[in-house]
Amino acid sequence: MARSLARSELEQLVDSLVLSWDDMASHTKAMLHCTVRHYLDGKIPWKITFEVDRWPDYTAVLWTCDEKDTSVLAFAQDSVFLHWTSEDGLRQLLTSTSVDWTKSLILIAFPLSGLSILREHLENQGLPFPAAEDIHPCDTAYYLHKICPSLEKVDGTDDKVTVAPLQPEHSHLVSSTWRHGGTPESEERTHYHITTFPSACVYDQDGNPVSWILLNYYGSQGLGYTLPDNRGRGYFQLASKYLISTCLQKGYLPFLFIEDYNEPSRIIHRKLGYSWNEAGRCAYIRLNKNKFKSS
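-> structure tokens emitted (295 positions)
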């Protein structure tokens, strides 16, 4: 059976996760580092189970919310994360974990390099491999610079705007403009992230939010958006620079996921100094989609 880590062992785990600005395939390590750190700091209020293939010389880690904990927010339910440095360790952990693979699940930013092992595991369990429409591939974009970007206004930016964190009262606006938002669950998710983790927002001269980006509880940046009437003015670049600076000051490795269809995001983040390559390819994968609860 997989080994479930005690809280004292989580301290050892996070100390072993040395983040490298030279590793272009480290997003699962970065997600694990941020999740454990936030969990130990009390920023994730629900219980998370961390399982390893062996201890202390682990080669694979799986973490997911404890399904018995009724305090788990809806957006985090059924999410499964994996980090591995050995394919044999991944195979062993997939087989021995306490996760019920027959349930509706979503694998978060699962590295595409592990797809064949995942397929093999599901076939051995007598379960279907997800259809193409249930696999949403992304590039992992990294900000691989160790200095904070200048927060000077970019060309075309109005000098009267200000940059500061989002406020709780902006949860509805941010949720309603998100591609997957507009539901009570997404607003709950947005409110939780705004009130718990760093964010950045450009405000116009009247104090209205016009462009923003947030930090997810597992460390990636997301939910970036600029209101349509305010696009083309450099506001998103300004908000992103603010959040990058905050992340670097707090010791985070700035990274985010760009869906394959989102070429405008690639253009903007390349200008900001982000880079990506094949090693960081990953996907959000829905398993047993027909069992997902209707919202």
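The chain has two domains: 3-138+281-291, 162-272.
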